[in-house]
Amino acid sequence: MPLRKKSRSRNIKTKEKEVTAIHTDIDNGTNEGKTRIKPLANVVQKKNKLDSPILIAGFPGTGLVGSISTSYIINKLHMNQIACVESQYIVPGVIYAEGKLRHPCRVYANEKGDVCVLVCEAPIIIEGMYSVLDTITKWILHNKVKEVIVLDAIGVEGLPDSKRVPMILSCNGRQADEANLIHENISDVKNKEQEIAAVNTSSIYPTTAFVGGMAGGILSSCLSNGIPCKAMLIYAARGIPDPEGAAVLIESVSKTTANESLKIDTQKLREQGANIRTSMEKIIQSYAGQQQQQQRYVENPSAKEGIMYG
Predict the structure, then answer these.
(1) pTM for this structure?
(2) Three-class HEC string of 182-209
(3) Residue 230 contacts by C-beta under 8 Å, 6 or more apart in sequence?
């Protein structure tokens, strides 16, 4: 009798192991608690390999600059989705775009495997932010990502200057204290003292900044794990899509990386941005005219009574 019970116990343990095995990721999948990055089956079959890629990340935010930038890069480089991030901390849902249903949090790669893009178009529950960030960081380390570039915006009231330039925060992956605010036009100065002086005298951005949410979280993880990273930030109007700002960021990426694949033509984004700027300027002018007319009436109520019709 005791022997039968022991044998039965072994069978139960074997079954438990089999059930667990069903839920493990396939081919380089990464698990972290209740979050995982799952490669797509068709990508696994083709055995596409990444070649120390640059990872560009963009998320919905002010002016949708991050989302517009990453979407444009994906389309221009004809990138394919290679994985999705599954997590109970990502608000459930799917994205319908270009006639297809997509996971809200996705990873793309170009054919060469030297450029990847991370997009997340659904909110992440604050309690699970670290679970998602830890999983993404482990994937970055596992795939030997060369550099992480985060594209985002700083919200301002009204329309920003059409000749705006981005603020670039950078870290070489070795010493977090070397991160600086670098103005694009002075990034080629000869020494550190000149760079600091130029930033203090000509930068239109503040000398300190806080980047939060997924964008800031990924940068923080890079600092903790010695991964070279950049944050490219640009002023953008709140509540208005900003293709022009996205174009400026993409052009800055091409200037600060040696990867030829990222030399992307942004003419279409520039045209979209110009159309939106023209429309917004007309709306603002019309609103200002209405405000002035109301103000004149408040100051001189009798003026309205003296108007003659006919």
Answers:
(1) 0.72
(2) EEHHHCCCCCHHHHHHHHHHHCCCCCCC
(3) 147, 148, 149, 150, 168, 169, 170, 171, 256
Question: Is the pLDDT at 26 greater than 60, yes or no?
Answer: no
**What pLDDT, on the 0 to 100 scale, is given for residue 200?**
42
* pLDDT confidence of residue 170: 83
Q: Running DSSP on this structure, what letter comes out for residue 81?
A: E
In this structure, whether the domain defined by 23-273 belongs to CATH 3.40.50.10900 is answered with: yes
Confidence at residue 47, expressed as pLDDT on a 0 to 100 scale: 57
**Distance (Å, rounded) from C-alpha 118 to C-alpha 58?**
7
Residue boundaries of the structural domains of the chain = 23-273
C-alpha 30: how far from its chain's center? 21
E strand or H helix at 302, and its extent? Answer: helix 302-305
Sign of CA dihedral 270, 98, 108, 119: positive
Measured CA to CA, the distance from residue 118 to residue 152 in angstroms comes to: 13
Q: With 70 as the cut, is the pLDDT of residue 182 above it?
A: no
Structure tokens at 299: 């100051």
Alpha-carbon distance of 219 to 169, in angstroms, equals 10
State phi, psi for 293 to the nearest 5 degrees. -65, -40
User: Which residues, 6+ apart, have CB-to-CB distance to 112 below 8 Å?
Assistant: 51, 261
Return all residues near 296 (Cβ < 8 A) that are at least 6 apart. 303
Phi, psi at 159, each rounded to 5°: -85, 130
CA distance 233 to 60: 13
Residue-wise pLDDT for 224-275, tens only, equals: 999 999 999 998 888 888 888 899 999 999 988 889 889 999 888 888 767 7
